From TrEMBL:
This is Uncharacterized protein. It comes from Kosmotoga arenicorallina S304. The lineage of its organism: Bacteria, Thermotogati, Thermotogota, Thermotogae, Kosmotogales. The chain crosses the membrane at residues 7-30, 36-57, 69-94, 100-119, 124-141, 161-177, 184-202, 208-223, 248-268, 339-361, 373-406. Coiled coil: none annotated. The keyword Membrane applies. Keywords: Membrane, Transmembrane, Transmembrane helix. The keyword Ubl conjugation does not apply.
């Protein structure tokens, strides 16, 4: 690998990380440092997707499956018709929603189509995942103590703050996956448990279950393959994890831990107060789960509003109907209400294809020769969230994983 190809791989891996989980980490840092600006997430995703498409076209020959491309294009066309025919057409909220759709679905989907045969560098993603977790720990106490009133700790998006739990969960899951690749089962269990505790404290309930489910998927894949892989199991990554690379990572880890230890010692009182606040906030949210059930009264109400909206316009839906933020907390219901039965059918076919290939990926004999297993596990875990307690209609990471896996070759 020449120097240019190496930098190309690093840059493409960074772009993929931004889209899957890095955007919220960058946004978090920007908010705390005062560098945040309106529509920062949109700008990040646009830059990532456009630069990724340019790199993919200039350096590789994209292999796009015609069936997946046709379904994706058909979904975009049907959705566009829904945008034009909705009663919210032309409003400020409609403009914002349409812009988000074309960035997070169309641009990110095209990027995923072009690089679905590309395997990113797991070292880069591993370093970024590790740094993401450390950064979150370092800054959590400050942002939490600045909240004058909050029933739970959330930091993140442009308008309504969202949980960092997705990014933290994906970061822990990727590190756990790396442990399995290198046959370190004890470290895998440690990271898995630490990740569960971290996501639990963040107080986003559905993400805890999705993360645990993702960890189980990764372990199941390991369990199925360890007998047939034998001694060759970890040779795949031996070149990528040379002695120098391991030494560099170890030194980096020691330096970060020393800095973190000094930081904790200097801010012991504030950190203790933060932990107590975040823990009590988390317990409060989990009490809602225990007392009211997984779908609390707010979600049930929003889902009913969405279904009523769909009944009034069954074929094309009523895009951007939820001007007051009362969107459905379930993807299928949200699809029906936003793009109608036609858009839902096309998207569901594409979704089923992706899930089918994700399962094949888990059972593939080449599972540890590629990085597809991680993206497949993200897709399955986000599917679990989408079907139970949230909508991922315009979530860039969900769309990326879905199109990436759907357009992947079965032999991979």
């Amino acid at each position: 690998m020449d120097k240019f190809e190496k930098y190309y791989t690093y840059l493409m891996s960074f772009i993929i990380w931004i889209i899957i989980s890095g955007w919220s980490i960058v946004l978090y840092i920007a908010r705390i440092s005062g560098l945040w600006f309106d529509n920062m997430v949109g700008v990040m995703i646009i830059l990532a997707a456009v630069s990724g498409i340019f790199l993919a076209i200039s350096q590789t020959k994209p292999k796009v499956l015609s069936s997946v491309f046709i379904l994706f294009l058909l979904y975009i066309i049907v959705s566009t018709i829904s945008f034009i025919t909705t009663s919210a057409f032309g409003t400020n909220y409609w403009t914002m929603k349409v812009s988000i759709f074309y960035v997070n679905v169309f641009l990110v989907g095209i990027f995923a189509l072009f690089i679905s045969q590309y395997f990113f560098d797991e070292r880069i993603i591993g370093y970024l995942s590790f740094i993401s977790i450390i950064i979150t720990m370092l800054f959590s106490y400050e942002s939490t103590l600045k909240i004058t009133y909050a029933s739970y700790s959330r930091v993140g998006s442009e308008g309504n703050p969202i949980a960092l739990s997705y990014s933290v969960a994906f970061s822990f899951a990727f590190l756990a996956w790396e442990c399995l690749v290198h046959r370190n089962l004890m470290l895998f269990l440690f990271i898995g448990l630490l990740g569960s505790l971290s996501v639990f404290i963040l107080g986003t309930r559905q993400t805890v279950f999705a993360y645990i489910f993702q960890i189980i998927i990764l372990y199941f894949a390991y369990f199925k393959k360890k007998r047939i892989a034998s001694k060759k199991f970890h040779i795949i990554s031996s070149k990528k994890t040379s002695y120098d690379a391991r030494k560099l990572f170890l030194n980096l880890f020691i330096i970060v831990m020393l800095i973190f230890a000094c930081f904790v010692f200097y801010n012991m009182k504030e950190i203790s107060e933060t932990i107590n606040l975040m823990w009590s906030s988390s317990i409060q949210r989990w009490n809602v789960f225990v007392n009211e059930g997984y779908s609390d009264s707010g979600r049930i109400f929003f889902n009913r509003v969405a279904l009523d909206t769909w009944v009034n316009s069954p074929f094309l839906g009523s895009f951007a109907y939820e001007n007051q933020g009362r969107w459905a907390h379930q993807l299928v219901i949200d699809l029906l209400s936003q793009v109608g039965l036609l858009g839902t059918m096309v998207f569901t076919i594409l979704w089923i294809i992706a899930l089918y290939k994700a399962v094949l990926c888990i059972f593939s004999k080449k599972i540890f020769e590629t990085t597809k297993i991680f993206i497949a596990s993200v897709l399955i875990s986000m599917t679990m969230i989408s079907l139970t307690a949230a909508t991922t209609l315009t979530s860039a990471n969900f769309i990326f994983c879905l199109i990436y896996i759907a357009n992947s070759s079965l032999e991979n």
